[in-house]
Amino acid sequence: MKGFRVTGSICDVVSRTQREELMCTVSYMFNGKLNILINNVGTSTLKPTLEYTSEDFSFLMSTNLESAYHICQLAYPLLKASEAGSIVFISLVAGVVATSIGGSIYSAAKGAVNQLAKNLACEWAEDNIRSNSVAPWFIKTPLVETESQRRFLPWWHSYAYLQLLT
Quick one: which of 11, 61, 85, 142 could link to 129 by a disulfide (CB 3.0–4.6 Å)? Predict the structure, then answer.
């Protein structure tokens, strides 16, 4: 036993109010400091671009981009107070290179996440806050394995790609 204190919180990242409440809890639990923030939220609906609705667009952008953007804003004072904060975004290779598997909104959101990581790295460097984005290929999860999405990803298990963006 290393003596680490572990705690858990539940937050619907699409809800601005819940994100704010989460960061208040984090601030309280860690005495106003945060060493690392990992933005690992993501969801997708893979289908041809012409089949997406405006509701699909809003949901995917709010989940995959807006939530990470706002969490970073809220975490900034805590990361700065740690004097060596770090942000890690979990993206996807489809945010770096084009694919033909369906998922243009998801790819656009992850591309924006990668760019957000780069911009925060530059903007917050003077506050000793690092920002990186890790862009793996698809990861075997129930979302990826659903029957409706297998038609897009029959080869997902045979391809691995990892890129660290700085």
Answer: 85
Using one digit for the tens of pLDDT, what is the confidence trace for 2-35? 887 777 888 898 999 999 999 999 999 999 999 9
**Considering the domain boundaries, does residue 112 fall inside one?**
yes
Per the domain annotation, does 96 fall within a domain?
yes
Per-residue 3-state assignment (H helix, E strand, C coil) for the chain: CCCCCCCCCCCCCCCHHHHHHHHHHHHHHCCCCCCEEEECCCCCCCCCHHHCCHHHHHHHHHHHHHHHHHHHHHHHHHHHHCCCEEEEEECCHHHCCCCCCCCHHHHHHHHHHHHHHHHHHHHCHHHCEEEEEECCCCCCCHHHHCHHHHCCCCCHHHCCCCCEEC
* Count of structural domains, the chain: 1
pTM for this prediction: 0.80
**Positions marked active-site:** 106
Residue 4 belongs to some domain of the structure: no
